[in-house]
Specification:
With about 425 residues, the chain is α+β, with helices and mostly antiparallel strands. The protein contains 12 helices and 19 strands. The strands form 5 sheets. Strands 10-11-12-15-16-19 form a 6-stranded mixed beta sheet, with helices on both faces. Strands 1, 13, 14, 17 and 18 form a 5-stranded antiparallel beta sheet that branches. It has a 4-stranded antiparallel beta sheet with strand order 6-5-7-8. A hairpin with a 5-residue loop joins strand 17 and strand 18. The longest helix is centred in the N-terminal third of the chain and has 27 residues. The radius of gyration is 24 Å and the shape is globular. About 10% of the residues have low confidence.
């Protein structure tokens, strides 16, 4: 075995021994010492396997590759959202939160051993090519993806701008796999878009929660007010196929439409992972009529927003049941430039509802266009993912502090968007629905 690896493993053994020894010295229960011995035995097994691979595997393998693969396997065994980020992947992730990255523009997960599309981000090559939620990626450039790790799938899909990648897709309703050749591009995602609809109603679409989403939302509302000359009658907030993003930005978006009260709270195992987020009254809050659109592609941050506005009866939520990702991922950088993305907490709505594996049920259910046209379409949900966390009702306690960040149906012409038509009709009937 390589000398550096031996030293690394030896240090782990020493640390495990010291933990057990010190626990016993301070009068801890015997189980703690037994647990220390158990860890030592498992680490010894790991060291033995590492030694066997180094000495006997048919090809020479790098120490770093073996260690990284071990860490990746450990994290991916926990839940669908915990993962290991190599130094290159960590840099790319930091770029993504700024709204610009290379690739084709899809959010994916692993389901039943195959990479599966959660959503194709609006205005990206994947979206324009016609990829849809629940599409299973059977091959990438002819290479089968069965049981391939998520990190490896992402690495194969990403590449230089202008270079095509061929995805072989399995889809409900298709008798045979279908090839999609998609040309990679630098993906620049504008997270907030707005326009004025007929009758001085505003439409705001949030595609994902990035570093500037809160500030961009402020600008969008001001632009709507300017365009309607101060006579804005209501806002339709479209969160369909929004996969989430930064937790603090989801809170900031919610705060734009609330002047007081609890927005969300998170609970983890540690005391500093029990945090409450409250709305703050501001002069530029928008407190007029509000309808929120969600669907099966609305996940994480978009569910925080929809849940907060629904629980406080601030908005009417319209559409189909959301994805159901109610967990918080914390990014923990490591000394070599890599990082761990670890699920550290679950989040809850103001009324204490857990969204994990449950999702947000709209106040008014309006099926999507694919269902209306009777095409066969089975949306993927958090509860369908292997090793997904179960939802639960938490204690009603919270904490103080800050959390680290976690991870559409294109609004075309209004007349072709049935869900949007219904939502707009609700806005127009707002006073009647509210009993005024």
């Amino acid at each position: 075995m390589n000398r550096k690896v031996k030293v690394f493993v030896a240090l782990i053994f020493i640390c495990a021994f010291l933990v057990g020894f010190l626990a016993g010295a301070h009068g801890k229960r015997p189980a703690a010492t037994a647990e220390g011995r158990e860890i030592y035995e498992f680490l010894k097994t790991y060291s033995d396997v590492l030694d066997i691979v180094k000495k006997n595997y048919v090809d020479t393998v790098k120490d770093q590759d073996l260690i990284y693969a071990s860490i990746r396997g450990m994290l991916e065994s926990l839940d669908p959202h915990s993962s290991f980020l190599t130094p290159d992947m960590y840099k790319e992730m930091q770029t993504e939160t700024k709204g610009e990255f290379g690739g084709i523009g899809i959010e994916i997960t692993i389901r039943d051993g195959l990479p599966t599309v959660i959503t194709a981000i609006e205005d990206t090559p994947a979206y324009k090519a016609g990829l849809k939620p629940s599409d299973r990626i059977f091959k990438i450039d002819g290479k089968p993806t069965k049981n391939m790790g998520l990190a490896d799938v992402v690495k194969m899909i990403r590449g230089p701008k202008g270079k095509p990648v061929t995805l072989t897709i399995l889809r409900e309703g298709l008798s045979l796999p279908k090839d999609y050749e998609i040309v990679r591009d630098v993906i620049v995602v504008k997270s907030v878009k707005q326009r004025v609809l007929e009758g001085d109603y505003g439409y705001i679409r949030i595609t994902q929660f990035q570093e500037r989403t809160g500030k961009d939302l402020d600008g969008a509302v001001k632009e709507l007010m300017r365009t309607t000359k101060g006579s804005l009658k209501g806002i339709l907030l479209d969160l369909r196929n929004n996969p989430g993003g930064l937790l603090d930005q989801a809170v900031e978006v919610s705060d734009k439409f609330l002047d007081e009260g609890l927005i969300t709270y998170i609970e983890g195992r540690k005391s500093d992972q029990k945090i409450k987020y409250f709305a703050r009254k501001k002069d530029d809050d928008y407190l007029g009529p509000l309808v929120v659109l969600v669907n099966e592609g609305s996940a994480s941050g978009s569910e925080i927003v929809a849940g907060a506005l629904q629980d406080t009866k601030r908005a009417v939520v319209v559409g189909t049941k959301s994805f159901g990702k109610g967990s918080v991922q914390t990014i923990l950088p490591l000394s070599d430039g890599s990082a761990v993305r670890l699920t550290t907490a679950k989040y809850y709505t103001p009324k204490g509802r857990s969204i994990q594996a449950e999702g947000i049920n709209p106040d008014i259910v309006v099926e999507n266009d694919l269902t209306k046209k009777k095409e066969k379409f089975v949306p993927i949900k958090e509860k369908d993912l292997n090793r997904h966390l179960e939802g639960q009702t938490p204690s009603k306690t919270g904490g103080e502090g800050e959390a680290q960040p976690g991870g559409g149906a294109k609004a075309g012409a209004e007349e072709d968007d049935f869900q949007m038509q219904i939502a707009l009709q609700i806005l127009r009937s707002w006073d009647a629905l509210r009993g005024r």
